[in-house]
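Query structure, 84 tokens:
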């Protein structure tokens, strides 16, 4: 599938559509970046109540949980936060 896409892109470039290919790729990249940024904002909103309840950031909880400082705390699901 990737090889087929590469052939199509090469054919477009060959007929002088390099600018169109570049613009399309840039738009796709921008779209994906925006999608991930929205997801990150949503996750941060979901983590906020836990951070307020436990008076620590998700980063701090994650580190302390991995360092074994919090034991087997079930309610601190936000400790499974991964640094973005």
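Result returned for the query:
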């Amino acid at each position: 599938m990737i090889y087929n896409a590469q052939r199509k892109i090469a054919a477009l470039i060959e007929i002088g559509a390099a600018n169109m290919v570049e613009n399309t790729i840039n738009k796709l990249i921008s779209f994906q970046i925006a999608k991930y940024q929205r997801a990150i904002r949503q996750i941060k909103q979901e983590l906020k109540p836990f951070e307020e309840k436990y008076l620590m950031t998700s980063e701090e909880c994650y580190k302390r949980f991995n360092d074994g400082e919090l034991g087997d705390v079930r309610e601190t699901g936000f400790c499974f936060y991964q640094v973005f």
